[in-house]
Amino acid sequence: MKYKGFYIDITPCDDLVRNDSKGYDVVCRGFKISVFNDEARTEKFDEFSAAVGYEILAEDIAEAEQFAKDVVSCEDKEFRLGEPEMVMGGQA
Question: The pTM is what?
Fold first, then answer.
């Protein structure tokens, strides 16, 4: 999937570890998400996961895609806020 100039790969998985409400580790189903800067997928921008019952409600690719878009939007915004402002003739 391509989103905001990034290339996103989403892979189902069944070994994501999260903490339940009592602090115990539980193994969850969900998706691993890799975000790349280039179509050839050689420059990884980020990697994260979405577990059912934690980051997403259901084991549904559409939910995983929306979660990935939300994370990319937030990280892209943070990244751009950290860049020096460019003006004519150089940096501000």
Answer: 0.80
